[in-house]
Amino acid sequence: MKALTISKNKKYIMCGDKPFFWLGDTAWLIFHKLSEEEAYTYLKNRADKGFNVIQPVLVYATPGLCDINKMYIPNCDVSSLSYWEHCDRVIRMAEELGIYMALLPSWGSLIKSGIITAENVGGYGRFLAERYKDYTNIIWVLGGDIRAAGYEEIYDRLAGVLKEKNPERLITFHPFGRCASSTWFGDRDWLDFNMFQSGHRRYDQGALGKWDDNKRAEGFFGEDNWKYVLRDHERSPLKPTLDGEPSYEWILQGLHDPTQPYWVARHVRRYAYWSVFAGSCGHTYGDNAVMQFYGGKDEPTQGVNNYGVRDKWQDAIHHEGSGQMKYLKELVSSVDFTEGAPRDDLIVGGQRERHERIAVFAGKDFLFAYTYTGKDFELVTEAYKGCEMWWFTPSKGIYSYIGKVSQDITCAAPPEVYDKDRDRVLVIKNDKK
User: Fold this and answer.
1) Integer CA distances (angstroms), 101 to 3, 52, 76, 320, in order
2) How many Å apart are CA 357 and CA 207, to the nearest integer?
3) In Å, what is the CA distance from 173 to each residue of 28, 188, 277?
4) Would residue 340 be called left, alpha or beta, if left means φ above 0 and alpha means ψ between -120 and 50 degrees?
5) Is the pTM here over 0.90, yes or no?
6) CA pair distance 45, 40, nearest whole angstrom
7) Nearest partner of 13 among 205, 242, 221, 215, judged by Cα
8) Under DSSP, is residue 313 helix (H, G, I), strand (E, B) or coil?
9) What's the CATH number of domain 343-429, 1.25.40, 1.20.1550, 3.40.50, 2.60.40?
């Protein structure tokens, strides 16, 4: 597999001379909880659905680290050579399927608990860099659901070792919920691209009185994950950015209260289209059961941080949202998306608020406009006269031809639908392919 690089305009990722659209999935515990046969089932499922990046954790927890945020997984001894050999084989398996592994060296709790320190992190980094120096499908993701404030030295040291030993590998940082890597490391040379975690809360769930409330002014945007993209692109130096953990499919809204509804497929699509059409370099999908590889009520993590999980992972890999992500990837990859930009200025009457938002992403030869509610809107289309138009259905990947752009102002009236999947994309370009 080819090494990934950053585009000349500093907003996207490249694979060789071609744009690379990051379509990721969170598989935090794949090394800890799955056999190699099970891992192949999961990876093959994701590869067939167009996923090209998987986000797993190498060391999630250790004996005695059983706080509210983590639980040690029995029979998973990370000090054993056999464990690392297992990881090696799963990573090779992903490589054969054309998948990059965005590896987290550890979860953030190991830093906060003092298990990984400034004194020993260099040795761990050298171990990882040496072990995986010949693998072609590695991306390093530092952090792991953590605010980096106070731990910058540890991550700087780890990143320094990884960059020194494996300079061709991209590095980013997975932060705490509703936070962004650019807050702490945006100016670091080792940080090749930014990652934010928009999190799992609604607009009205800014503070729930739980351990994971944001207690600092990092910026709470609710469901408006596109705001993280725009904020990162305004920060200097400019780097690619993406949502590395939005709301998971079939996770409780807000995580903690079982009386609350679940995030479902139409919600995860909205997060994806909003952030990508704001200019992100891709998107990471997630499923509540899959991210923790939930095996049923008899496993030891039952009742601890499972966030209302309903299904076993073997069933959850078939949830509809995971199969719908590839339609976004294929749509965006049908044009040179590296030349695109968000274009609110093309919306007649100005941008709308919250769920009414019309996400417009356009380049010289294309325009995409996403509506979550399916309501009518108007666009300035003078520059696209003569181009073809379609309505695109994100839940099915279906194009429905409209005709050619003929007006300076186009009234976009999505066709009537009779279910809850009302989201549509107005697609304008020279041809469908």
Assistant:
1) 12, 9, 20, 23
2) 24
3) 15, 11, 22
4) beta
5) yes
6) 8
7) 242
8) helix
9) 2.60.40
CATH class (in words) of the domain with range 4-337: alpha beta
Hunting for tokens 């009457």 — which residue is that?
349
Q: Minimal CA–CA distance to 351: which of 241, 427, 246, 277?
A: 277
The pair of three-digit structure tokens given for residue 388, joined into one six-digit string: 């073809």
| From-to residues of CATH 2.60.40 in the chain | 343-429
For the segment 284-341, what is each residue's pLDDT rounded down to a tens digit?
999 999 999 998 876 654 444 689 999 999 999 999 999 999 999 999 999 999 999 9
Cβ-contact 404, 310 below 8 angstroms: no
Structure tokens at 310: 């309903």
Distance, in Å, from the CA atom of 247 to the CA atom of 198, rounded to the nearest integer, reads 7
Question: C-alpha angle 63/213/265, rounded to 5°?
Answer: 90
∠ CA(290), CA(291), CA(292), 5° rounding? 90
Quote the CA–CA distance of 56 and 290 in Å, as a whole number. 11
The string of pLDDT tens digits covering residues 144-161 is 999 999 999 999 999 999
Hey, what amino acid is at 391?
A: W
